[in-house]
Write a structure and sequence with these properties.
Blueprint: H1 5-15, H2 28-31, E1 36-37, H3 39-45, H4 48-60, H5 66-82, E2 85-92, E3 100-105, E4 107-109, E5 115-117, H6 121-125, E6 126-127, E7 147-151, E8 157-162, E9 165-176, H7 185-205, E10 215-228, H8 229-233, H9 236-241, H10 266-281, E11 286-291, E12 297-302, E13 305-306, H11 307-327, E14 330-333, E15 347-355, E16 359-360, H12 372-395, H13 421-431, E17 443-444, E18 454-455, E19 467-469, E20 474-476, H14 486-513, H15 517-532, H16 544-553, H17 562-565, H18 572-581, H19 586-635, H20 646-664, H21 672-698, H22 711-716
Parallel strand pairs: 2-9
Antiparallel strand pairs: 1-8, 2-3, 4-5, 6-7, 7-9, 8-9, 10-12, 10-13, 10-14, 10-15, 11-12, 15-16, 15-20, 17-18, 19-20
The chain binds adenosine-5'-diphosphate and magnesium ion.
């Protein structure tokens, strides 16, 4: 028997597969949010007063009376049970990127042996999952394991229906007995609070009298790969690490750019329709989908929502994406770089802040130079990215995102801000103390009478910037595809809050000495541009010139790897930033460093072990079989061209495997930082070295013997 059974079987199974079909019959209005206990549902299910209280909480974050929780719990239970739910679960978001849930039945029994159902206000408000196994970065000792989940009424509850039944899901925070945040939701909620507090100060100083609660919004574009699950099942690296640890480049990859925005393959369209209908039922507004640059790569962008809800929806979307993909015979890969040599996947996080009274505070309107609120908020972002760029880098640091950042497909690890031509020149004028009107984009006139003229944007777009202004929001483009959007949102909100607080002080002083409001704003923004203007960059972020200029001339930091970026969490200015804004205590922040560092080390160790295993048990035996056969033939006088360096590569590969084996045994490090560095500087290059020999072997070994599905097969056999 040859060693490539599973690869051959995978191809046979895919060839004989009967595809599922999916016909969408129900109109959108019938399925939209049908499984969500949202305000519309509550208006019908609750008394007038209870509904008013809930609406106030959802809209403004105001405290909810526990008696209202009692009423809401009863209505929620009735609504969920009518949909077949017998269980409920607090859903929470631990410091890993996962979503956690523990199911409890509504059922209780009575002494007569009968069953009744119960769901009280206190059961809704609080759950206790223990959950001592979740990483907490020493925030809890294992002998003091109490952790609570607590209902977040600002994110709607929903019923999740799977083949195994329906469950009422209650979005929740996760907190330790001592009150410390163990999750990704609490910091996000706190960061919204911080933005609101700071924005209120600035807007009040600007003479606004009616100021609604300021909140952040997020629309995240999710990139992902779909690979036939038969291939994935034949690749332990995809199953365990979500990326290929081996694989020679296909003769045809993405070089023709023929996949980007191309026609979506039929089988994928079926998946998308099914998946998006599921999202619609859960009130997730799937808005844009298309093919991405790499073969087998796609994107889905939901319409933007309040950041807290958007973050919960992102998590839910990733879960459903994977489960629906499985239903259609695909494995959905959310890893940032599943395949070498073709583009990786990111998650562009579009972010803005605003309220019901002033609207989107990052919307310049047609005349940005006269929109003072906008200029202040935009200036606050510029200051924030300059002062805390390394934090933005740290919150997107992971072993998997390291493969993508800084390659010529994704933004560099250097944080800069792209403003676009029009806005950049407004801010350059401000430097010289002026606020001048700027040319608008004008009308697009192609000189073709049949094509109607349309209004052009005032600036072009820049795909090479990690942090770009895109008309009425900033787009954080360096976020990884598998990440929770919470970390990036927390960082953006917190640096904005810090800048707005700083600005409020400056503005107050300037308003006292200048008679004119515009002049006062100019003075404040002048200081922003003088001290922080060097973070604004409109050129090509991929170029080596920029890397040099950014670091040498502008003093920006280039934190290439997670090993360099994660320790930023421990730097004093970052500790102070989070403490003064009330988003994370020093202890909570320290725990995040511990957890993320440990995750980094673990991911690399799992990969290294698998590299050793696959090289030793799959690739080497195939090489031996091939070399033996060719050598035998050579003895009969046949050409031994087929060896093509196979002997040398097989030996080199096994020599590197031995080295890797020796290195991963090491565990005595002086500090976590040293361990991170060791992984990134010792283990990663060795893994690459093993791969290099293995990929060379793939190019010469008899195709029949090769054990792993090849890149061209995974990309092209559908
Ligand atoms: P592109 O690929 O051109 O960047 P997409 O349409 O794919 O744009 O995605 C843009 C994302 O930005 C969507 O999720 C959209 O809802 C979101 N978005 C639009 N306006 C705002 C805003 N004011 N605040 C936050 N997100 C926004
Ligand atoms: Mg985008």
């Amino acid at each position: 028997m040859s060693s490539n059974q599973s690869r051959a079987q995978a191809i046979a199974q895919i060839t004989n597969r009967v595809s599922k079909s999916y016909t969408q019959t129900e109109p959108l209005k019938d399925i939209w949010a049908s499984d969500v206990f949202n305000l519309a549902t509550m208006e019908e299910a609750l008394s007038k007063n209870a509904f008013k209280a809930m609406k106030n909480t959802v809209m403004t974050g105001a405290a909810l009376d526990p008696t209202v929780a009692e009423v809401v719990a009863a209505a929620m239970k009735e609504w969920a049970m009518a949909k077949g739910a017998k269980f409920f679960s607090h859903v929470f978001y631990p410091m890993t990127n996962i979503t956690a849930e523990k199911h409890d039945g509504f059922i209780i029994t009575n002494p007569e042996g009968g069953s009744i159902t119960e769901f009280t206000g206190s059961l809704l408000i609080k759950g206790e999952p223990d959950g001592s196994s979740f990483p907490n970065g020493s925030l809890r000792m294992t002998n003091a394991a109490r952790g609570y989940t607590a209902w977040d009424p600002t994110s709607p509850a929903f019923v999740m229906t799977t083949a195994n039944g329906a469950v009422l899901m209650i979005p929740s925070v996760f907190v330790s007995w001592t009150g410390e945040a163990l999750d990704k939701k609490i910091p996000l909620l706190r960061s919204n609070l911080a933005v609101n507090r700071a924005a209120q100060k600035v807007l009040t100083l600007m003479g606004e009298t009616e100021i609604g609660t300021v909140n952040s919004s997020c629309g995240a574009e999710q990139e992902y790969f779909l690979i036939d699950e038969n291939f994935a099942n034949a690749r332990p690296d995809l199953l365990l690490c979500g990326r290929t640890l081996f694989g020679a480049s296909a003769a045809k990859g993405q070089q023709f750019d023929d996949h980007y925005f191309g026609a979506i393959p039929a089988r994928v369209q079926v998946f998308m329709q099914d998946f998006e209908d599921k999202l619609y039922r859960l009130g997730i507004p799937a808005k844009t989908h298309h093919n991405e640059v790499a073969p087998g790569q796609f994107e889905l962008a939901p319409y933007f929502e309040a950041a807290n809800v958007a973050a919960d929806h992102q998590q839910l979307m990733m879960t459903i994406m994977k489960s629906r993909a499985k239903e259609h015979g695909f494995m959905c890969l959310l890893h940032e770089k599943p395949f070498a040599g073709v583009n990786g996947s990111g998650k562009h996080v579009n972010w803005s802040v605003g309220n019901a009274t002033q609207g989107n505070l990052l919307d310049p309107g047609d005349t940005p130079h006269s929109n003072l609120n906008f200029l202040l908020f935009c200036g606050a972002v510029i200051r924030g990215v300059h002062l805390y760029g390394p934090l933005l880098r740290a919150v997107i640091a992971s072993a998997s995102n390291d493969h993508r950042l800084g390659a010529n497909e994704a933004p560099p690890a250097i944080m800069s801000v792209y403003l676009g031509d029009q806005l950049e020149s407004v801010f350059q004028d401000i430097k010289t103390g002026e606020l001048l009107a700027k040319a608008e984009g004008g009308m697009m006139d192609m000189g073709l009478s049949q094509i109607l003229k349309f209004k052009r944007d005032p600036g072009d777009r820049n795909r090479t910037s990690p942090f770009a202004f895109t008309g009425n929001r900033f787009e954080f483009r360096a976020v990884g595809s598998s990440q929770s959007v919470s970390g990036p949102l927390v960082a953006m909100n917190t640096i904005l809050a810090d800048s707005l607080n700083w600005m409020a002080g400056k503005l107050e002083a300037a308003l006292a000495s200048k008679s004119d409001q515009t002049q006062a704003v100019i003075v404040v923004l002048q200081e922003v541009m003088e001290k922080h203007g060097q973070v604004v960059f409109g050129g090509n972020g991929y170029s080596t010139d920029w890397h040099k200029e950014a670091v040498e001339k502008r003093g920006l930091r280039n934190l290439r790897t997670s090993a360099e970026a994660l320790p930023v969490f421990k730097e004093q200015p970052i500790v102070e930033l989070f403490e003064t804004t009330g988003v994370l205590s020093p202890k909570e922040l320290a725990s995040r460093f511990d957890v993320y560092a440990e995750q980094y080390v673990q991911s690399i160790e799992v990969e290294a072990k698998l590299v050793i295993n696959i090289a030793t048990t799959k690739i080497y035996p195939a090489a031996v079989e091939h070399i033996t056969a060719v050598s035998k033939a050579a003895k009969l006088g046949l050409s031994d061209n087929g060896l093509g360096g196979a002997v040398e590569n097989a030996n080199a590969m096994m020599a590197d495997v031995a080295k890797l084996q020796a290195e991963i045994g090491k565990h005595d490090f002086d500090s976590i930082e040293a361990h991170l560095k060791f992984c990134s500087e010792k283990i990663c290059p060795l893994m690459l070295s093993v791969r290099k020999s293995a990929d060379a072997l793939e190019g010469v070994i008899d195709d029949e013997l090769w054990p792993l599905p090849k890149y061209f097969e995974m990309f092209n056999i559908k």
